[in-house]
């Protein structure tokens, strides 16, 4: 995967989120989803998707008069790339500092705390390999 695919911009990530949830999808549907959360023009969304197509982030196929778009990058791969960047730039590579910061900034649900305990137990037993 080339470098452009590794680090989507904030705007590209918004579009990718829609694709990962609902693909294949038209520009009209992508725009409707994004516009429901923030003020953005249709032509802005269209231009962004065209740039993403040119960069190889998305594929499209003709469907009548419209194009249906799908993502060429996986959610998990993107999360890993963004996580690594955040970990290395903001937390100097310390997963502990990142975890402590995240847990200190938000309220974990009882289920999340249970899952965290289970993960820690597995790590102590050497069963978790990241």
Tell me the span between the first and last alpha carbons.
22 Å
CATH architecture of the largest domain: Orthogonal Bundle
Work out the strand percent.
5-15%
Helical segment count: 7
- The radius of gyration is 18 Å
Keywords: DNA-binding, Transcription, Transcription regulation
InterPro entries: BlaI_family, WH-like_DNA-bd_sf, WH_DNA-bd_sf
Family: Belongs to the BlaI transcriptional regulatory family.
Pfam families: Penicillinase_R (PF03965)
Describe this structure in words.
With 130 residues, the protein is mainly alpha-helical. It has 2 domains: 3-71, Winged helix-like DNA-binding domain superfamily/Winged helix DNA-binding domain (Arc Repressor Mutant, subunit A, Orthogonal Bundle); 95-130. It is built from 7 helices and 2 strands, in the order H-H-H-H-E-E-H-H-H. The chain has helices at 3-6, 10-22, 27-35, 42-55, 75-90, 95-105, 110-124, and strands at residues 58-63, 66-71. It has a two-stranded antiparallel ribbon. The longest helix has 16 residues, at 75-90. Mean pLDDT is 89; it is low at 1-5.
Compile the SSE list and pairings.
Blueprint: H1 3-6, H2 10-22, H3 27-35, H4 42-55, E1 58-63, E2 66-71, H5 75-90, H6 95-105, H7 110-124
Antiparallel strand pairs: 1-2
Helix pairs in contact: 2-3, 3-4
Kindly summarize this structure in a few lines.
By secondary structure, the chain is mostly helical.
């Amino acid at each position: 995967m080339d470098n452009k695919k590794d680090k989507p911009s904030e705007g590209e990530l918004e579009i990718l989120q829609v694709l990962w949830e609902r693909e294949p999808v038209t520009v009209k549907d992508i725009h409707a989803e994004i516009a429901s959360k923030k003020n953005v023009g249709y032509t802005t969304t269209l231009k962004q998707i065209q740039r993403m197509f040119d960069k190889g982030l998305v594929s499209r196929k003709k469907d009548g008069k419209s194009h249906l778009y799908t993502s060429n990058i996986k959610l998990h791969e993107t999360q890993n790339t963004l996580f690594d960047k955040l970990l290395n730039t903001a937390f100097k590579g310390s997963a502990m500092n990142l975890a402590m910061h995240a847990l200190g900034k938000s309220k974990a649900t009882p289920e999340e705390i249970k899952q965290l305990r289970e993960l820690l137990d597995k790590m102590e037993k050497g069963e978790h390999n990241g």
